[in-house]
Amino acid sequence: MNQNIEIIVDGQTYEAEENSLLIDLLIKHEIKVPYFCYHESLGADGNCRMCMVEIVGQKRPQIACDTLIKPGMEVHSKGEKIDTVRTNILELELINHPVDCPTCDQAGECSLQDFYMDYGLHTSKINVQEKVTHAKHVDLGANVMLDQERCVLCARCTRFTDKITHSHELGIIGRGDDARVSTMPGRPLSNPYAMNVVDLCPVGALTSKDFRFHQRVWFLKSAEAICQGCSTGCNIYIDHNKPKYRDDTVYRFRPRRNDAVNGFFICDDGRLSYKALEENRQRQTLLEGQEIETDAACSHLKALVQQHQGNITVIIDANLYTEEITALLVYAETIKAEVTAPLEFYNDANFEDDLLKSAQCAANYQSVLDLNLSTQAPDKKGLIINFNYPEQFHADTVVSFNTHQGAQASLIFPIASYSENSGTLTNKDGLEQFSKKAVTKNSPSPTILEWLERLKQ
Ligand code: SF4
Ligand code: SF4
Ligand code: FES
User: Fold this and answer.
1) How many Cβ atoms are within 10 Å of 8's Cβ, its own excluded?
2) This prediction's pTM
3) What ligand has the least distance to the C-alpha of 153?
4) I need a surface site. Which of 58, 80, 237, 284 has the fewest CB within 10 A?
5) Rg (alpha carbons) of the chain, rounded to whole number
């Protein structure tokens, strides 16, 4: 490890590791520097030339992404001279860029738009009709669309498939005006992390087939949550919106940086798992298939508990939040029930890989192990009260609390899904993480904690 040294940026002294990248220092201290090709997960490539800074003693401006921090270094990140350099480079980037912003999905979260407002705002020397055109709708496979005209050739996407997934599907072909991102014939983008290139692309060249044209990004609100696709516990943003007169709806999951868990990325299965969250929801309280008042349903459950004393099993799903599991253990003790948290459904060796995906496909799998809960199928056949475990068990009477339809039970209670609720999860490495509530439905289903309160009354 190199020693820490001091350097001066814009007249201020900063401490940094000798020989670390200058751009990392600028990003860390939020010193404004425009860049397209650099990314902390991919390293420097030096191709976009946007990250120019002045270094005292150097004849010409240098790119911050490929400059190592040295003792005595003095840097100017702003000023008329460096702004002119950035403006000229940006103009070059924009020569053939289409005038697509009104219809582009990246609008509102586009580096090119932001840098244009900072360093552009010039009259173009090129007519729209003179711009070099390329293919605008290239289906790359794996849920990703490419617009070759919008690409600034930063090579983040190609470096992702080279350095992170090692699947090498993407490359830049052609030279000069003809240069463009492409796949090889018959070899589509098809790795399980492919949609991360959409987040990496600094402009609207790569868009998600799933998300494009569904929402303008400035309407979305983001909640910091944890993916429930497996026990890795990747950190995500749940982007949602409540359009006028309609319900609060999730539009996408995006990775949220956490270097201790998922870095910058998530898998495509986890990313698209938001769809299943919204579909086939259990919204009604049902007794033998007929809708019933919630108070009557609670009374009915209490009567069943009395009737089956000594012959009751509570089943806990390994995706429930720790706060819910803890409350259910107290409830089970109160009604003298046995407890089991089966894991069989959540073991999937085929899902696992070397990057992020875990074979333990439940978000709180580790908590079930840590709490030493039984994971056996219930052996009592009196009353089973199942809290959202997806498999069915047979008994004299089955009561089920469910986020989704499909339970075979005489009494069914609807419950809030994890995006409509908040709580703690322990990932496979024992890290406790808090997932915030994102969505508030017009007619919200109660959480398990709310149902348990009502059962006490
Ligand atoms: S498609 Fe996007 S990420 Fe890929 S090279 Fe072009 S601008 Fe960069
Ligand atoms: S690896 Fe697991 S936790 Fe991470 S995004 Fe994929 S399914 Fe979700
Ligand atoms: S970010 Fe430095 S050259 Fe692209």
Assistant:
1) 14
2) 0.94
3) 1
4) 80
5) 27
